[in-house]
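Following the same procedure, backbone shapes were mapped to integers, as reproduced here:
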Amino acid sequence: MGGCRTSSRRSPAATDVIMYRLEDKMMYVPLNYEWREALSQARRAFESLAKVDDGRITFSIDAISDGRRTSIGISPSAWRSIASRLTRYEVINIVVRPEVVDADVGVAPPVYSLASSAPEEKRSLSSSSLPPASSTGSRSQSVCKFGLKGMLQALRKE
């Protein structure tokens, strides 16, 4: 099995500058070994990151493995170690993960009611309130064919 190497080789010059890439834009930035400062530099380099939560911003590098290009993510805890081995002008990809929205927070379940407000018509649907099943089909097929409007009409007739 083949090895994995980064796309560029170590330069004899001290690594003081790297390149951030966000989508199709690139920007040189000074190399910083602290994760938080690397995030701050990314925000200064790309205004679109200004209001993005830290947890949504990830860094990665491109590498060649078995003759194929692959992207390798860099975790915050590994940043210092990886940063110390980067080559001058190496490209760090910035990826913004999608925002996760919790659908359950602050959203009440829908409230359903029958069309009429008459007390005798406000009863739960039971097998007795469903239309009779056809002679050739099951009750569920009959209910599907009957529809909500038909069920409400059947309840009013009872």
